[in-house]
Amino acid sequence: MTTSVPPLPSAGNRYRRRLRAPLAALCCALLLGGPAAATAAAAGPPPARAQARGTLVSAEKLYTLATPEAVVAELAAAGFGGDTVRHGVVAYRLVYRTVDVHGRPTTASGLFVLPLASERRLQPVSFAHGTGVHKDDSPSMQRARFVSAPVVAHAAAGAAGVAPDYLGMGTGPGLHPWMDIGSETTASLDMLRAARAFAPRTGHALERDVQVTGFSQGASAALGLGRALEAGEDRWFRLGALAPVSGAYDFGGTELPALFGGELHAKSGVVYAAYTLVAFNRLHPVYDSPYEVFDKDYAPEVEALFDGTHTGQQLMGGLPATVDALLTDHGRAVLEHPTGALAGALRTTDAVCTDWVPDAPVRLYMATGDEQAVTANTEECRSALRRNGVRAPVVDVGAVDHQESRHSGSNVAATPAIIRWFGALRGR
Questions:
Q1: Are 115 and 125 in contact (CB under 8 A)?
Q2: pTM (global) more than 0.85
């Protein structure tokens, strides 16, 4: 259902106030499913002066879970527990202005979930989701399923849940620049700005301190957002706490070697290798023709599988069972020994834990035996932060499974633990 929303407040006033079951894949929860039947309700064009990053373009009320019991039932459908639920929730899709990987104006969408019968002023929790291949594998494109369940859970515990879909996902135009920390950061920060602009229409206001979390791909995105907030890139928001889950923080130095060392689930490794080459090549000169890096049986179709219109099931069916069957010798060499533009891009990706010193409290969550984002990534992140003088305890949630994936299970197990930690920091 859609609801109309009141006109946007003026820029001057604002600135004065200042499955879908997951499939195994690279450091993510790849999701089954096709397009969702959802149409955004435009709120009308914003005033000309407000055409800036984070400006709200439209808002659509997606659903209301009116009671805590209804929230618990929705979370259970996604495999999540409901022990931390205290409120019903209402969920909105926000479409907002942001920038693409080249800094050009574009739009993106995201999920904004608020607790019912709650205080007026709410602390925002930003959640960055794991990888999906279809545009609909995004928080704002479904109800409390796997990618949106943590957002709903945080809101049901009394926070304002904010989740970007990322560029090219949800209702956003174009292709998704996967594992591009820069665009994940801008999309996340601008989603917070849009949520702040929209919150007064619901009778709420967002506090300054943002508690930031994210799973898998979203773990690195969470670190990117945290770094931006600590650097003062927004005049209102600042970092309150940081709790990433099961990330590939050392993507080039740890995750790629683990793939070729047989440490990952075999089919996950295939998706991992394919998406790395395709996504990075869209932004950096990695190869001239897919035939250079992919076997001739897969080269004609592999790039199209990652165009945002194919489901996880189609992706898994369109790729071989082993990395050896997917890659040419040259393709394997490119990933095993990155050089040139790819090596440079991986240095940026691998710097999420190494090139800043967060003042806010940090905890790193992981699961024993993660078959997709190997746990050595987390140890590398902790060590990098320690070298900078930052104490970042590692919380091992144990050998947990969800849909036969220990990686996905880490998200399920870590979510209530993070909610409790964030709540303790808020004094609630």
A1: no
A2: yes
And the tokens for 199? 């919150």
Question: Could you write out the DSSP letters of every residue in 106-118?
Answer: EEEEEEEEEESS-
- For the chain, domains (ranges, CATH) are 11-250+361-426 (3.40.50.1820), 254-344 (1.10.260.160)
Cite the beta strand spans of 296-399 per DSSP E.
Answer: 364-366, 394-396
In three-state secondary structure terms, 14 is helix
Give me the average pLDDT of each 10-residue run along the chain (428 residues).
35 31 39 34 39 94 97 95 97 98 97 96 98 94 85 98 98 97 98 98 98 98 98 97 97 95 92 96 97 98 97 94 97 97 96 94 96 95 96 94 86 97 91
Strand partners, 30: 23
Other beta carbons within 10 angstroms of residue 124's beta carbon come to 24
Q: How far apart are CA 163 and CA 160, in angstroms?
A: 10
Listed residue (91, 174, 166) closest to 129, CA to CA: 166
Nearby residues of 275 by Cβ (< 8 Å), 6 or more positions away: 25, 26, 131, 133, 178, 306
Contacts of 73 (CB under 8 A, 6+ apart): none
DSSP, collapsed to helix, strand or coil, labels residue 94 as strand
User: Where do runs of H (alpha helix) occur along 206-310?
Assistant: 217-230, 256-260, 266-283, 290-293
